[in-house]
Design brief:
The protein is of the alpha/beta class and 281 residues long. The protein has a single domain, classed as NAD(P)-binding Rossmann-like Domain (Rossmann fold, 3-Layer(aba) Sandwich). The protein starts with 14 loop residues before the first strand and ends in a 19-residue tail after the last helix. Helix 1 packs across helix 8, helix 3 packs parallel to helix 4 and helix 4 packs parallel to helix 6. A seven-stranded parallel sheet has the order 3-2-1-4-5-6-7, with helices on both faces. It is built from nine helices and seven strands. Bound molecules: nicotinamide-adenine-dinucleotide.
Length: 281
């Protein structure tokens, strides 16, 4: 029988670890989950005590590239709240903007370490502490689905996160643990993307042009809403997915993009009736 109850993505009482929770998307996810009754554990290389106090959660100082620290964070969640239900591997960096021929190897390694190794360690040390029904959510990127020039180390690390998500979902399936990725695109909060000198101007314009139905950037709240759903039992049948939060950009070039690139109208005819209002009957 169809279940017609209103289900508000219940996360009350769930213990959720969020990495990269000091700033940006991680902090917004933490606020949303806590507002819906979850116990939040805020992991970051920076001190999250203030936000943790506000949300009645736990702050853990962690470098997600350090295995000992990641394991200690997962254990701290269990020690404080008695269980571990949801892990959001969100901490990420974008260390290099430039063409591959100019790639700085240290920057490449940094992106791979934080964005990919960090996610792997999060999965490795969360899963043994989780029970059936648990959910792991990895924050990848639209650029993991479709690359953008000048961000190759970031692109590659996020594509690998998507693949790792699928491997983990297969391995952890028998334990009843779901593993999904979300793939955001440019978000309007004060993020690292805005700190890349000279890149954000064309990047923001390019992103907006690629959106199918809006000409504005997304907001971290758009991603937090999806994370909220994936964390809840309402998403019990959603596994091994990489879900884009990108206003349709991953579908391919938008009409606005085609017209900007070609200087021509994208419709086949000059008087395309498709979008005309129907005549009143
Ligand atoms: N902002 C966007 O437009 C956008 C788009 C696509 C994907 N993303 C992804 O979303 C996630 C969050 O991005 P954001 O924009 O909120 O970034 P942000 O720079 O605002 O925040 C990242 C957080 O991660 C923390 N962090 C960095 N290195 C760490 C480490 N080694 N260990 C622990 N914590 C560390 C930082 O201290 C910071 O609090 C990232 O994975 C990013 O790649 C963001």
């Amino acid at each position: 029988m169809t279940d017609t109850r209103v289900t508000p993505f219940n996360v009350a009482g769930k213990v959720c670890v969020i990495t990269g929770a000091f700033h940006g998307l991680g902090a917004i996810i933490a606020r949303r989950l806590a507002a819906n009754g979850a116990h939040v554990v805020l992991g970051d290389i920076r001190d999250c005590t203030e936000l943790a106090d506000e949300l009645d959660g736990l702050a853990v100082r962690v470098d997600v590239t350090d295995e000992t620290q990641v394991e200690a964070m997962m254990q701290a969640a269990v020690d404080r709240f008695g269980q571990l239900d949801v892990v959001i591997n969100n901490a990420g960096v974008e260390s290099f903007d430039g063409f591959i021929v100019d790639m700085d190897v240290d920057a490449w390694r940094r992106d791979m370490d934080v964005n990919l190794l960090g996610v792997m360690l999060g999965i490795k040390h969360a899963a043994p502490r989780m029970k059936p029904g648990a959910s792991i959510i990895n924050v990848a990127s639209l650029f993991g689905l479709m690359p953008i020039p000048t961000l190759s180390s970031y692109d590659a690390s996020k594509a690998a996160v998507i693949h790792l998500t699928k491997t983990a979902s297969v391995e952890l399936g028998p334990k009843g643990i779901r593993v999904n990725a979300i793939c955001p695109t440019g978000l309007t909060h004060d993020s690292y993307l805005g700190r890349i000198e000279g890149v954000d101007n064309w990047l923001d314009d390019w992103l907006k042009l690629n959106h199918q139905h809006v000409d504005e950037l997304g907001h971290a709240d758009d991603c937090a809403a999806l994370v909220h759903y994936l964390a809840s039992d309402d998403a019990r049948f959603i596994n091994a997915q990489a879900i884009a939060v990108d206003a349709g950009a991953s579908a391919g070039p938008s009409i606005a993009m085609i017209e900007a690139a070609t200087g021509k109208r994208a419709e086949w005819t000059d008087d395309d009736p498709m979008f005309e209002a129907p005549e009143p009957s």
